[in-house]
Specification:
The complex is a heterodimer of chains A (about 180) and B (about 120). By secondary structure, chain A is an alpha+beta fold. Chain A has one domain: CheC-like (Chemotaxis protein chec), CATH 3.40.1550.10. Chain A is built from three helices and eight strands. In chain A, strands 1, 2, 3, 4, 5, 6 and 7 form a seven-stranded antiparallel beta sheet that branches. In chain A, strand 2 and strand 3 form a beta hairpin. Chain A is globular and about 45 Å long. The N and C termini of chain A lie far apart (about 45 Å). By secondary structure, chain B is of the alpha/beta class. Chain B has a single domain, classed as Rossmann fold. Chain B has a five-stranded parallel beta sheet with strand order 2-1-3-4-5, with helices on both faces. The chains are: A alpha+beta (about 180), B alpha/beta (about 120). Strand 8 of chain A pairs antiparallel with strand 5 of chain B.
Chain lengths: ~180, ~120
Protein backbone atom coordinates (compact mmCIF):
# COMPACT_ATOMS: atom_id res chain seq x y z
CA UNK A 1 0.00 0.00 0.00
CA UNK A 2 1.39 3.43 -0.90
CA UNK A 3 1.89 6.09 1.75
CA UNK A 4 -0.81 8.26 0.17
CA UNK A 5 -3.30 5.40 0.14
CA UNK A 6 -2.53 4.65 3.79
CA UNK A 7 -3.06 8.31 4.71
CA UNK A 8 -6.31 8.44 2.75
CA UNK A 9 -7.57 5.38 4.57
CA UNK A 10 -6.51 6.81 7.94
CA UNK A 11 -8.24 10.10 7.12
CA UNK A 12 -11.44 8.30 6.10
CA UNK A 13 -11.35 6.31 9.31
CA UNK A 14 -10.83 9.47 11.40
CA UNK A 15 -13.91 11.00 9.76
CA UNK A 16 -16.02 8.28 11.35
CA UNK A 17 -14.75 9.50 14.72
CA UNK A 18 -15.54 13.10 13.75
CA UNK A 19 -19.15 12.21 12.93
CA UNK A 20 -19.53 10.03 16.04
CA UNK A 21 -18.03 12.69 18.32
CA UNK A 22 -20.22 15.42 16.79
CA UNK A 23 -23.49 13.54 17.18
CA UNK A 24 -22.65 12.40 20.73
CA UNK A 25 -21.58 15.86 21.91
CA UNK A 26 -24.62 17.74 20.64
CA UNK A 27 -26.96 14.96 21.79
CA UNK A 28 -25.57 15.51 25.31
CA UNK A 29 -26.82 19.11 25.01
CA UNK A 30 -30.34 18.18 23.86
CA UNK A 31 -29.51 18.89 20.21
CA UNK A 32 -29.83 15.65 18.22
CA UNK A 33 -27.98 15.77 14.90
CA UNK A 34 -28.53 13.85 11.69
CA UNK A 35 -25.52 13.55 9.42
CA UNK A 36 -26.19 14.64 5.84
CA UNK A 37 -24.63 12.97 2.87
CA UNK A 38 -21.32 14.27 1.58
CA UNK A 39 -21.62 17.18 -0.77
CA UNK A 40 -24.17 19.16 1.23
CA UNK A 41 -23.76 22.86 0.60
CA UNK A 42 -21.69 24.74 3.17
CA UNK A 43 -23.92 27.76 3.14
CA UNK A 44 -25.63 29.25 6.17
CA UNK A 45 -27.73 31.54 4.04
CA UNK A 46 -28.48 35.09 5.03
CA UNK A 47 -28.03 36.18 8.60
CA UNK A 48 -25.37 36.10 11.25
CA UNK A 49 -23.05 33.14 11.42
CA UNK A 50 -20.44 32.05 13.92
CA UNK A 51 -17.36 29.90 13.34
CA UNK A 52 -14.91 28.49 15.84
CA UNK A 53 -11.53 27.17 14.76
CA UNK A 54 -9.15 25.13 16.85
CA UNK A 55 -5.81 23.66 15.83
CA UNK A 56 -4.13 20.49 16.98
CA UNK A 57 -0.85 18.66 16.56
CA UNK A 58 0.42 15.19 17.34
CA UNK A 59 3.04 12.74 16.30
CA UNK A 60 3.19 12.99 12.49
CA UNK A 61 -0.24 14.62 12.26
CA UNK A 62 -1.41 18.23 12.49
CA UNK A 63 -4.47 20.18 11.41
CA UNK A 64 -7.55 22.02 12.58
CA UNK A 65 -11.24 21.64 13.31
CA UNK A 66 -13.82 24.21 12.25
CA UNK A 67 -17.31 24.40 13.73
CA UNK A 68 -19.77 26.59 11.81
CA UNK A 69 -23.41 27.44 12.45
CA UNK A 70 -25.86 30.31 12.59
CA UNK A 71 -25.82 32.56 15.62
CA UNK A 72 -29.33 31.35 16.42
CA UNK A 73 -28.10 27.76 16.55
CA UNK A 74 -25.25 28.68 18.88
CA UNK A 75 -27.54 30.61 21.22
CA UNK A 76 -29.70 27.52 21.78
CA UNK A 77 -26.88 25.27 22.96
CA UNK A 78 -27.23 26.17 26.62
CA UNK A 79 -30.85 25.39 27.58
CA UNK A 80 -32.18 27.47 30.43
CA UNK A 81 -29.56 30.20 30.15
CA UNK A 82 -29.98 33.24 27.89
CA UNK A 83 -26.95 33.50 25.62
CA UNK A 84 -27.15 36.85 23.90
CA UNK A 85 -23.99 38.93 23.85
CA UNK A 86 -21.05 38.45 21.48
CA UNK A 87 -18.87 37.49 24.44
CA UNK A 88 -21.32 34.78 25.56
CA UNK A 89 -21.72 33.36 22.04
CA UNK A 90 -17.96 33.41 21.51
CA UNK A 91 -17.35 31.60 24.78
CA UNK A 92 -20.12 29.05 24.23
CA UNK A 93 -19.23 28.16 20.64
CA UNK A 94 -15.50 28.12 21.40
CA UNK A 95 -16.13 25.73 24.29
CA UNK A 96 -18.16 23.48 21.99
CA UNK A 97 -15.32 23.31 19.45
CA UNK A 98 -12.96 22.55 22.33
CA UNK A 99 -15.21 19.79 23.66
CA UNK A 100 -15.70 18.37 20.17
CA UNK A 101 -12.01 18.19 19.38
CA UNK A 102 -11.41 16.88 22.92
CA UNK A 103 -13.89 14.10 22.24
CA UNK A 104 -12.18 13.24 18.94
CA UNK A 105 -8.84 13.34 20.76
CA UNK A 106 -10.10 10.85 23.35
CA UNK A 107 -11.39 8.52 20.64
CA UNK A 108 -8.07 8.70 18.78
CA UNK A 109 -6.18 8.00 22.01
CA UNK A 110 -7.77 4.57 21.88
CA UNK A 111 -6.06 4.20 18.48
CA UNK A 112 -2.63 5.23 19.76
CA UNK A 113 -2.81 8.77 18.33
CA UNK A 114 -2.00 11.48 20.89
CA UNK A 115 -3.15 14.99 19.99
CA UNK A 116 -2.38 18.29 21.70
CA UNK A 117 -5.04 20.95 21.25
CA UNK A 118 -4.64 24.69 20.69
CA UNK A 119 -7.03 27.34 22.00
CA UNK A 120 -10.20 28.02 19.99
CA UNK A 121 -10.69 31.22 18.03
CA UNK A 122 -14.26 32.29 17.29
CA UNK A 123 -15.41 34.73 14.63
CA UNK A 124 -18.70 36.24 13.52
CA UNK A 125 -19.84 37.10 10.03
CA UNK A 126 -22.79 37.55 7.71
CA UNK A 127 -23.59 35.11 4.91
CA UNK A 128 -20.65 32.91 5.79
CA UNK A 129 -19.75 30.58 2.95
CA UNK A 130 -16.56 28.66 3.40
CA UNK A 131 -15.04 26.98 0.34
CA UNK A 132 -15.13 23.25 -0.14
CA UNK A 133 -11.58 21.98 0.26
CA UNK A 134 -10.01 20.53 -2.85
CA UNK A 135 -7.30 18.56 -1.06
CA UNK A 136 -7.73 14.95 -0.06
CA UNK A 137 -7.39 15.38 3.68
CA UNK A 138 -9.99 18.01 4.44
CA UNK A 139 -13.71 17.36 4.66
CA UNK A 140 -16.86 19.20 5.67
CA UNK A 141 -19.61 17.35 7.47
CA UNK A 142 -23.11 18.83 7.46
CA UNK A 143 -25.68 17.99 10.14
CA UNK A 144 -29.32 18.90 10.51
CA UNK A 145 -30.79 19.60 13.93
CA UNK A 146 -34.00 21.05 15.37
CA UNK A 147 -32.13 24.36 15.73
CA UNK A 148 -30.86 24.45 12.15
CA UNK A 149 -27.81 23.24 10.29
CA UNK A 150 -24.33 22.92 11.76
CA UNK A 151 -21.11 22.15 9.90
CA UNK A 152 -17.93 20.49 11.11
CA UNK A 153 -14.71 20.48 9.14
CA UNK A 154 -11.70 18.40 10.08
CA UNK A 155 -8.38 19.01 8.35
CA UNK A 156 -5.37 16.74 8.74
CA UNK A 157 -1.87 16.78 7.33
CA UNK A 158 0.04 13.54 7.78
CA UNK A 159 3.80 13.09 7.83
CA UNK A 160 5.60 9.82 7.11
CA UNK A 161 5.45 7.60 10.17
CA UNK A 162 1.85 8.35 11.07
CA UNK A 163 0.03 5.22 12.18
CA UNK A 164 -3.63 4.88 13.13
CA UNK A 165 -3.75 1.85 15.41
CA UNK A 166 -6.56 -0.59 16.03
CA UNK A 167 -9.14 0.56 18.55
CA UNK A 168 -8.47 -0.49 22.15
CA UNK A 169 -11.48 -1.90 23.97
CA UNK A 170 -12.97 0.30 26.73
CA UNK A 171 -11.97 -2.37 29.22
CA UNK A 172 -8.25 -1.97 28.46
CA UNK A 173 -6.33 -1.06 31.61
CA UNK A 174 -4.82 2.09 30.14
CA UNK A 175 -7.90 3.13 28.11
CA UNK A 176 -8.62 6.86 28.31
CA UNK A 177 -11.55 8.09 30.41
CA UNK A 178 -14.77 8.58 28.47
CA UNK A 179 -16.98 11.68 28.40
CA UNK A 180 -19.29 11.91 31.40
CA UNK A 181 -17.07 9.54 33.39
CA UNK A 182 -16.53 10.38 37.04
CA UNK A 183 -13.51 8.88 38.76
CA UNK A 184 -13.06 9.31 42.49
CA UNK A 185 -9.63 8.75 44.00
CA UNK B 1 -23.94 29.48 56.12
CA UNK B 2 -23.66 27.40 52.96
CA UNK B 3 -20.49 25.64 51.90
CA UNK B 4 -18.34 27.54 49.40
CA UNK B 5 -17.01 25.89 46.25
CA UNK B 6 -14.42 27.51 43.98
CA UNK B 7 -15.20 26.86 40.30
CA UNK B 8 -12.22 27.38 37.97
CA UNK B 9 -12.70 27.38 34.20
CA UNK B 10 -11.81 29.82 31.42
CA UNK B 11 -15.21 29.13 29.85
CA UNK B 12 -18.11 31.21 31.14
CA UNK B 13 -20.46 28.52 29.84
CA UNK B 14 -18.87 25.84 32.02
CA UNK B 15 -18.76 28.10 35.07
CA UNK B 16 -22.47 28.82 34.58
CA UNK B 17 -23.35 25.13 34.19
CA UNK B 18 -21.37 24.08 37.25
CA UNK B 19 -22.61 27.07 39.22
CA UNK B 20 -26.21 26.34 38.38
CA UNK B 21 -25.94 22.69 39.45
CA UNK B 22 -24.13 23.41 42.71
CA UNK B 23 -26.20 26.46 43.65
CA UNK B 24 -29.37 24.39 43.25
CA UNK B 25 -27.81 21.87 45.65
CA UNK B 26 -27.26 24.58 48.27
CA UNK B 27 -23.62 25.50 47.69
CA UNK B 28 -22.24 29.02 47.30
CA UNK B 29 -20.05 29.54 44.25
CA UNK B 30 -16.87 31.56 43.86
CA UNK B 31 -15.62 31.78 40.25
CA UNK B 32 -12.11 31.99 38.82
CA UNK B 33 -11.14 32.19 35.14
CA UNK B 34 -7.79 30.36 35.29
CA UNK B 35 -5.32 28.82 37.72
CA UNK B 36 -3.64 32.10 38.64
CA UNK B 37 -7.00 33.76 39.33
CA UNK B 38 -7.98 30.70 41.37
CA UNK B 39 -4.95 31.07 43.64
CA UNK B 40 -5.95 34.70 44.31
CA UNK B 41 -9.59 33.78 44.92
CA UNK B 42 -8.53 30.96 47.24
CA UNK B 43 -6.34 33.33 49.25
CA UNK B 44 -9.29 35.72 49.55
CA UNK B 45 -11.72 32.88 50.37
CA UNK B 46 -9.81 30.53 52.67
CA UNK B 47 -13.08 28.99 53.85
CA UNK B 48 -13.70 27.46 50.40
CA UNK B 49 -14.29 23.78 51.08
CA UNK B 50 -13.65 22.36 47.61
CA UNK B 51 -12.38 23.32 44.15
CA UNK B 52 -13.82 22.20 40.79
CA UNK B 53 -11.05 22.89 38.27
CA UNK B 54 -10.51 22.70 34.51
CA UNK B 55 -7.15 21.45 33.21
CA UNK B 56 -6.39 23.40 30.02
CA UNK B 57 -6.53 27.13 30.76
CA UNK B 58 -4.48 30.17 29.80
CA UNK B 59 -1.88 31.64 32.19
CA UNK B 60 -1.96 28.69 34.62
CA UNK B 61 -3.30 25.19 33.97
CA UNK B 62 -5.29 23.14 36.42
CA UNK B 63 -2.34 20.84 37.07
CA UNK B 64 -0.10 23.84 37.83
CA UNK B 65 -2.81 25.22 40.11
CA UNK B 66 -2.91 21.90 41.94
CA UNK B 67 0.89 21.94 42.37
CA UNK B 68 0.70 25.48 43.78
CA UNK B 69 -2.13 24.66 46.18
CA UNK B 70 -0.19 21.72 47.62
CA UNK B 71 3.00 23.79 47.86
CA UNK B 72 1.12 26.64 49.56
CA UNK B 73 0.08 24.47 52.46
CA UNK B 74 -3.41 23.29 51.52
CA UNK B 75 -2.67 19.55 51.32
CA UNK B 76 -6.15 18.49 52.30
CA UNK B 77 -8.24 20.81 50.13
CA UNK B 78 -10.38 18.55 47.91
CA UNK B 79 -9.95 19.32 44.20
CA UNK B 80 -12.06 17.73 41.45
CA UNK B 81 -10.77 18.10 37.90
CA UNK B 82 -13.43 18.81 35.24
CA UNK B 83 -11.97 18.66 31.74
CA UNK B 84 -12.22 17.40 28.16
CA UNK B 85 -8.99 15.47 28.79
CA UNK B 86 -9.15 11.72 29.32
CA UNK B 87 -5.47 10.91 28.97
CA UNK B 88 -4.42 8.33 31.61
CA UNK B 89 -1.03 10.03 32.19
CA UNK B 90 -2.70 13.35 33.08
CA UNK B 91 -5.19 11.62 35.35
CA UNK B 92 -2.36 9.85 37.17
CA UNK B 93 -0.49 13.13 37.54
CA UNK B 94 -3.51 14.84 39.11
CA UNK B 95 -4.06 11.85 41.37
CA UNK B 96 -0.43 11.97 42.50
CA UNK B 97 -0.93 15.65 43.38
CA UNK B 98 -3.88 14.73 45.56
CA UNK B 99 -6.85 15.45 43.29
CA UNK B 100 -9.93 13.69 44.62
CA UNK B 101 -11.80 13.23 41.38
CA UNK B 102 -11.69 13.51 37.58
CA UNK B 103 -14.72 14.21 35.40
CA UNK B 104 -14.64 14.27 31.60
CA UNK B 105 -16.82 16.99 29.98
CA UNK B 106 -19.64 17.17 29.24
CA UNK B 107 -20.54 16.32 32.81
CA UNK B 108 -23.72 14.99 34.34
CA UNK B 109 -24.84 17.57 36.94
CA UNK B 110 -26.18 14.93 39.33
CA UNK B 111 -22.83 13.12 39.36
CA UNK B 112 -20.93 16.33 40.02
CA UNK B 113 -23.27 17.31 42.85
CA UNK B 114 -23.02 13.85 44.41
CA UNK B 115 -19.21 13.98 44.28
CA UNK B 116 -19.07 17.48 45.77
CA UNK B 117 -21.47 16.54 48.57
CA UNK B 118 -19.49 13.43 49.40
CA UNK B 119 -16.13 15.20 49.43
CA UNK B 120 -17.25 18.25 51.40
CA UNK B 121 -18.99 16.03 53.97
CA UNK B 122 -15.85 13.94 54.36
CA UNK B 123 -13.70 17.06 54.78
CA UNK B 124 -16.03 18.69 57.36
Amino acid sequence: MSVNTAFAEAFASIQLHVVKASTELFEAYDTPLSHLQDGASIDLGAGDGVASIIGYAGSNIRGALVLLASREFAAKLQPGIDVVSDAEIRDLFGEFSNMLLGRIKNQLLRRSVVLMLATPTTLFGKELRLPTPTGGTSTWHAFDSPHGRVFVRFDATFDPGFVLGDEEPDSAEDAPAAEGDLMMF
Amino acid sequence: MSTKVLVVDDSLMVRQQVGRALTAAGFTIVEAVDGADALEKLAATPEAALVVCDVNMPRMSGIEFLENVRRDGRPALPVVMLTTEGQPELIQKAKALGAKGWIVKPFKPELLVAAVKKLTAAAA
